Amino acid sequence: MDYSIRKVTIDDYDAIYELWNAAEQSRRALNPVDDSREGIARYLKRNPDTCFAAVKNGKIIGVILTGHDGRRAIIHHMCVHPDYRRMGIAGHLVSLAEDALKKEGIQKIFGLVFKDNEPANAFWEQQGYSLRTNLNYRNKSLNDEIPTGE
């Protein structure tokens, strides 16, 4: 498959938001504050070298947003357009993000996947990401516009 990879910039926002909305699982992970243009601009300012887009014919067909706090990294969003799945794009994006995080001295990454998203859970398992069953994920929203989840 012929596509290129490049770092994400805020100029990509509209195309990335459109991509997220093309996939039901990605769409349901969005929130109106953190995933707004302003929220993504803030995120990219803190993580300019760890977020990547797969581009084909000028169109973003895949994206991964990863960042860190200096100690641990998190994969916040990873999405490939449904028309381009199972072609190795997601694995390529993950590999690039992992390499970028290693260059920044990060040794451990975690990500969140909806329990009922079986294809995504299988993908992350294939990438070597283990399922932690000894932790509870706790969440508190400091903004009424951001849902707390289930």
What does this structure look like?
With 150 residues, the protein is α+β, with helices and mostly antiparallel strands. The protein has a single domain, classed as Gcn5-related N-acetyltransferase (GNAT) (Aminopeptidase, 3-Layer(aba) Sandwich). It has helices at 13-22, 24-29, 37-46, 89-103, 118-126, and strands at 4-7, 51-56, 59-68, 73-80, 109-111. β2 (51-56) and β3 form a beta hairpin. The model has no long low-confidence stretch (mean pLDDT 91).
* Tally of distinct domains: 1
Shape: globular
Please outline the major beta sheet: 5 strands, mixed
Q: Mean pLDDT, as a whole number?
A: 91
How far apart are the first and last residues' alpha carbons, in Å? 39 Å
Ranges with pLDDT <50 over ≥5 residues?
none
For the biggest β-sheet, the strand order reads 1-2-3-4-5
CATH architecture: 3-Layer(aba) Sandwich
Percentage beta strand:
15-25%
Q: Report the CATH C-level class.
A: Alpha Beta
Could you spell the SSE succession in H and E letters?
EHHHEEEHEH
How many helices in DSSP terms? 5
Overall radius of gyration: 15 Å
Structural class: alpha+beta
Tell me roughly what share of residues is in helical segments.
25-40%
**Relevant CATH superfamily:** Gcn5-related N-acetyltransferase (GNAT)
CATH topology: Aminopeptidase
Helices, strands, pairings?
Elements: E1 4-7, H1 13-22, H2 24-29, H3 37-46, E2 51-56, E3 59-68, E4 73-80, H4 89-103, E5 109-111, H5 118-126
Parallel strand pairs: 4-5
Antiparallel strand pairs: 1-2, 2-3, 3-4
